[in-house]
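Exercise 3.2. Students should predict the tertiary structure of the chain below and write it as structure tokens, then compare their answer with the key that follows.

Predict this chain's 3D structure.
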Amino acid sequence: MQSPTIPLVGWRGLFESIDVMKFSRAFAALTAFLLLATGALAADKPNFLFIAIDDLNDWVEPLAGHPDTKTPNMARLAERGTTFLNAHCQSPLCNPSRTSLLTGLRPTTTGVYALQPWFRTVPELADHVSLPQYLKQNGYRTLSAGKIYHGGYGRGKGDHEFDEVGPGASGKPFPKEKLVNTPQPHKLVDWGTFPHKDEDKGDTIVANWAVEQLTAENLPEQPFFLSVGFFLPHVPCYATQKWFDLHPVASTHLPPILDGDRDDTPRFSWYTHWKLPEPRLKFLEEAGETLNITRSYLACISYVDHQVGRVLDALDTSGVADDTVIVLWSDHGFHLGEKQITGKNTLWDRSTRVPLIFAGPGITEDAKTNRPAELLDIYPTLLDLAGLPANEMNEGLSLVPQLKDPTAMRLRPAMTSHGPGNHGVRSENWRYIRYADGSEELYDMVADPNEWTNIADSENATHIKIKAELAKWMPKSDAAPAPGSESRLLERKPNGDVYWELEKIDPNEPIPEL
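Answer key:
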């Protein structure tokens, strides 16, 4: 019996009819081919395990930022890949740093300088394609738990950042009362140990969820982007006794602190952390808390390193480790007395330098590079590793050249901004800072890694030339603060008035808490 025919129109008379059975067989074969081709393409794309750690400075073994740090799991990750020894955040504050990394845009482009707003509320950014969205558009299953965006941003029912969202970040459990009576009695600004269990801690719960996702029965069929955000060592720096025991009182070294360190820094440098819940060094010394906060921070890092290790172990037993790129990063650093403060919100290395480690297929193993890198570079790097088209909106550079050859040249230094007009530029050997009022700092990072001697006023021809070269990388203009910005916002108005968190600073007012 002859097969029925269906007339086709719109093909300019090329065909007048088609055999339905033959068409069906051909279509089925074509569909099978496309599915196989799609599967092959998907298989060619690496999975991404994206590990974020909050407020973690360079006190990890791969960066050797503190002699007593114990992070064996980050160390073994570094052995599997490439560590950037000179990586820096785009802002020394959670929300703008994470917004920059995940949008691929600088704070000076987005106007997100403060702990607010969620960038999706900014009209110009409402439809901007974030890193997880870009990967989702290109065949990835996107999953997230813990702190990836700041706070609860990106986790709401109306948000479309991830396909699947697990447990959120938490500093719980808390003691019945604060352990340290800080000058500003903020609940989160606390540290020490009290009776509690690791299994009840927020980061353990996040790691549990990540481990579950990496079991064979839960692995997505398509390539995945699994983002895991750990809360500690963000304050409150609470750890159980077992982690404190790794850092005995008698053998724990205090951070390098120089009396009078701020004598050669401009007054404007204090404006970047004018009034904060985190206490000054003066309080730590007078209250006898310098050693306690140091041990607490180290203990929290060791605890988080253990959770990182649990996730890495799960990946190793998942069957997809050889097809997975791991990237571990922190959103910014943290002071523990250096420069007379605790916390972040500065343009010095202690606040801007962060761990950044890549491992996986195509990445050089057990390698370190001192080339400058920016968190902004992660977005284009992952696209490059996945063989995806570049997002032309990205302002970062792919780090693939350094992942293949740690000695590969870098086209520019790293830049960190804290409020409009305040920028720090970091090359391999130098740091140059210029504040919104034009005051400056310059440090020789080879001879003076602690940034104790500001040589910005030097008349040395080399120093003058270096300042000019690094200044070229600072933006010619900065976006105004996004609507809704407030917490930790520093802004200098055109008339010269300076505002901290929307309140004017009296230029003759004593520096708080000193």
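Discussion points: The first strand starts at residue 47 and ends at 53. The mean pLDDT is 92.
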